[in-house]
Amino acid sequence: MSSIFQMGLQYYHDNSNWLNEPFLVTFLAYFMIISGAITFSVEQFLKVPAAYGRFAHTFSTQFSINSKVGWIVQEAPSFIIAVYYLSSAESRFFNSNPRNRLLLMLFSLHYFHRSFIFPMFTKPKRPNPFITHVLGFIFCVWNGYLQGASLSRNELSSSSTFYYLGLVIFWTGAIINIKSDYYLISLRTKRDRKIKNGNGNGSGDNEKTKRDDDYATKSRTSDYIMPEGGFFDFVSCPNYFGETLEWFGYALASGCIGQWAFAFFTFANLAPRAVQYHQFYKTNFKNYPKQRKAYIPFVW
Ligand SMILES: NC(=O)c1ccc[n+]([C@@H]2O[C@H](COP(=O)([O-])OP(=O)(O)OC[C@H]3O[C@@H](n4cnc5c(N)ncnc54)[C@H](OP(=O)(O)O)[C@@H]3O)[C@@H](O)[C@H]2O)c1
């Protein structure tokens, strides 16, 4: 028995020079870039949306769980794994590399909000397919590990200029993302309040109220209200634009492959969805502003 164990140990020593953490981190980063490219192609060219939220019905919800619970469980690993790296033995590395620590703290902060605060305010209209949450969970474990392991062992490759510029872009993106998310979440409450007050049935006497009441007849689409004002005057999905900006700034501040891989995946995942939402609004709201872009102001 002990000789089998020793043989195993010998095998590990002989082969561990390639099967080690730096190799794994690099492999996972490149695999994330490839997965992002595949996700982008499937969503953008084959027009297959990710099955959650307004597109939850595109996949069977026979096996589904409460969306809020599913959201917390799928997102939390990114937060937990990052906090593990911030507080474990690897954290000694941060004493001589405080910029790495700050980036991982920003990542943790983002995922603390995304996992535990954001879902407290959402008002999901339907459950999401179970498989969507499983895929989200796998991604968050993978990404939590990638960010934690890479930031706690690799020195950043960015210059001070890019580091500080990246931080400014990160915070700008975070503000746009959070403001837009909470505006979207507030829309149903505002609409319900209007209906309760008796001016949300199409008989409102100002143009804005009429537009607010411009719901499509299909019950699925009536869960969605036309967003207006602020960043929404420029793009249909400023929350996605803000999220992309956030991770682009984070990657710029780091300059390392692990952070660029995540920024790329975010773009690849959210850009096609923004295009799908834009199309959804144009199809369902006849007054939808023509000059509004889908994802990037004035560009796309
Ligand atoms: N890094 C990444 O790859 C990644 C991937 C996915 C999401 N995220 C981020 O996670 C956050 C949530 O993403 P999401 O895809 O769920 O965003 P979303 O589809 O825009 O929805 C955000 C919230 O607002 C509600 N909502 C959206 N549009 C509405 C409208 N027109 N009328 C009324 N309610 C509306 C949604 O309800 P329903 O749920 O009922 O539709 C949901 O509760 C965003 O900040 C996003 O950037 C990041």
Describe it for me?
This protein has 2 domains: 60-155, no CATH class; 165-300, no CATH class. The chain has a two-stranded antiparallel ribbon with strand order 1-2. Residues 201-205 and 215-220 have low confidence and may be disordered. The protein is an all-alpha fold and 300 residues long. It has helices spanning 2-15, 21-44, 67-87, 92-96, 98-121, 130-151, 160-196, 207-212, 238-254, 257-284; strands spanning 64-65, 128-129. The longest helix has 37 residues, at 160-196. The chain is 66% helix and 1% strand. The relative contact order is 0.14. NADP nicotinamide-adenine-dinucleotide phosphate is lined by residues 53-54, 122, 124-125, 177, 181, 184-185, 187-188, 224-225, 227, 239-240, 243, 266, 269-270.
Average pLDDT for all residues = 90
Biggest pleated sheet:
2 strands, antiparallel
- Distance from N terminus to C terminus (CA atoms, Å) equals 63 Å
Identify the overall geometry: globular
How big is the Rg?
22 Å
SS-derived structural category:
mainly alpha
How would you summarize this macromolecular structure in one to three sentences?
By secondary structure, this protein is an all-alpha fold.
Helices and strands in order, then pairings?
Elements: H1 2-15, H2 21-44, E1 64-65, H3 67-87, H4 92-96, H5 98-121, E2 128-129, H6 130-151, H7 160-196, H8 207-212, H9 238-254, H10 257-284
Antiparallel strand pairs: 1-2
Helix pairs in contact: 2-6, 2-10, 3-5, 3-6, 5-7, 7-9, 9-10
This protein binds NADP nicotinamide-adenine-dinucleotide phosphate (NAP).
Question: What key phrases describe this protein's structure?
Answer:
66% helix, 10 helices, binds NADP nicotinamide-adenine-dinucleotide phosphate, mainly alpha, 300 residues
